[in-house]
Specification:
about 325 residues; 9 helices; eight-stranded parallel beta sheet; single chain; about 40% helix; 8 strands
Length: about 325
């Protein structure tokens, strides 16, 4: 296992043109610049992903939806809903984003890297099995999680989502699945209106969804307490063989779409706790994917803090 942290990235994401939308290409430009100028840049291995195929994303999305999405985009649609903007290149970008999660999950499961960060757009955690919404087209993390289960023989995985918005899509896809533990901290009430404490899964998946609604102004200390007292014990009990992170940084105190009060130090602490949790589970496997974060300086600084902790975790090998 290399001690380096893998950074999965492709310039195609810059061609996903959303105009003046908050989720725009400047986000990734700021992130890439930050990571390449960081003090730990020599410990990062940049990986160009292979795009997913439509069949590969059908592992979590309905074939009808995947065909509809491709046709709508390639025939020139500009809006899939009031919030979700696309252009012709968005289809290739979406497949590449999903491909990043497939590649990163495989590489970490094989032991090529201890952990990885996927710098992707469009984001994914609002995309349901048959619906695009909230800037999201394909649920990247869900594709990666299900792929590693099917291909690499991992029985149980966890998804920890700390975006300011609830990941309704990820919850929807895995809601009745006892093999995927979905954890979300999010501002409540807030878009998309899901994620109450009583949403805990259904059928065989009852008890494998853990929603932790946060309140306006909650910051570093409140999140640390929730991780220490609720999330870490719950994930340890579930014992996943890999942890995926839906890494949204719109909980930062400066974010225009947020309402929480996290700082770069808070995101670093959350990441440190997740990396330690993976180590305590005996494997250390963490795959993180970018979701939200719309204030460019705050986003870049927060991703730098997040990846910096993944790098530190890799040094433990």
């Amino acid at each position: 296992m290399t001690p380096k942290t893998a950074i999965y990235y492709d310039p195609i994401f810059l061609a996903h043109d959303t105009g003046n939308h908050p989720e725009n290409h400047h986000r990734l430009e700021a992130i890439v610049k930050k990571l390449k100028s960081s003090s730990f840049h020599s410990r990062l291995e940049w990986v160009k992903p292979e795009p997913a195929t439509p069949t590969q994303v059908e592992i979590v999305h309905s074939p009808h939806y995947v065909r509809w999405l491709e046709e709508r985009i390639l025939l020139g649609a500009h809006y899939l809903d009031a919030d979700t903007v696309v252009c012709h290149e968005s289809w290739e970008a979406a497949l590449t984003a999903a491909g990043e999660l497939i590649g990163a999950a495989r590489a970490v499961a094989e032991g090529k890297y201890k952990n990885a960060f996927c710098a992707v757009r469009p984001p994914g955690h609002h995309a349901e099995a048959g619906r695009a919404m909230g800037f999201c087209l394909i649920n990247n993390v869900a594709v990666g999680a299900r792929t590693v289960q099917r291909e690499m023989g991992l029985d149980k995985v966890a998804v920890i989502d700390f975006d300011v918005h609830h990941g309704n899509g990820t919850q929807h896809i895995f809601y009745d699945d006892p093999s995927v533990f979905y954890v979300s901290t999010h501002l409540w009430p807030h878009y998309p209106g899901t994620g109450s404490e009583d949403e805990t899964g259904e059928g065989a998946g009852k008890g494998t969804t853990l929603n932790i609604p946060m309140t306006q102004g909650d910051g570093d200390e409140a999140f640390a307490e929730k991780f220490d007292k609720v999330i870490v014990p719950a994930v340890l009990k579930f014992r996943p063989e890999m942890i995926f992170i839906s890494a949204g940084f719109d909980g930062h105190k400066n974010d225009p779409l947020g309402g929480l009060a996290l700082t770069e130090a808070g995101f670093a602490a959350i990441t440190r706790k997740i990396a330690q949790l993976a180590d305590d589970l005996g494997h250390g496997r963490v795959v993180s994917a970018l979701e939200g974060g719309y204030d460019l300086p705050a986003l870049a600084a927060s991703v730098g803090a997040h990846v910096g902790e993944l790098v530190k975790a890799g040094k433990k090998e």
